[in-house]
Amino acid sequence: MNRRIKAVPPSLTLAIAAKAAAMKEKGEDVISLSAGEPDFDTPQPVKDAAIKAIREGQTKYTPSIGMPSLRRAIAEKLHAENGLKYDHTQVFVSVGAKQCLFDLTFVLCDEGDDVLIPSPYWLSTPEMAKLCGANPVFVPCPEEMGFMLTADAVRKAWTPKTRMIVINTPNNPSGAVYDERELIAIGKFCVEKKIFVVSDEIYEKMIYNGKKHHSILELVPELREQAAFVGGFSKTWSMTGWRVGYAAAPRDVVDACDRLQGHMTANTATPSQHAALAAMILDESFTDAMIKEFDKRRRFCVERIRKIPGVSTVEPHGAFYFLIRVDGLYGKSIGGKKVTDSLTFCEALLEKEKLAAVPGVAFGTDRHVRISYATSMGALEKGLDRMERFVRALA
Ligand SMILES: Cc1ncc(COP(=O)(O)O)c(C=O)c1O
Question: What value does the mean pLDDT of the chain take?
Answer without folding.
Answer: 96
